[in-house]
Amino acid sequence: MTGDPRDVPAPFAAALASLRAQRPRPEVRLAEIPGPTRIAPFSVALEGEVLDARPGPDRPGPGEDAGEVATGRFVVLHDPAGQETWRGTFRVVTLVRATLEPELAADPLLAEVAWSWVTEALEAASVEQVALGGTVTRVLSQSFGALAGTPDAVDLELRASWTPTGTDLGAHLAVWADLMSTAGGLPPLPDGVTALAPRRNTVGP
Question: Which residue among 17, 61, 104, 112 has its CA within the 20 to 30 Å range from the CA of 168?
Answer without folding.
Answer: 112
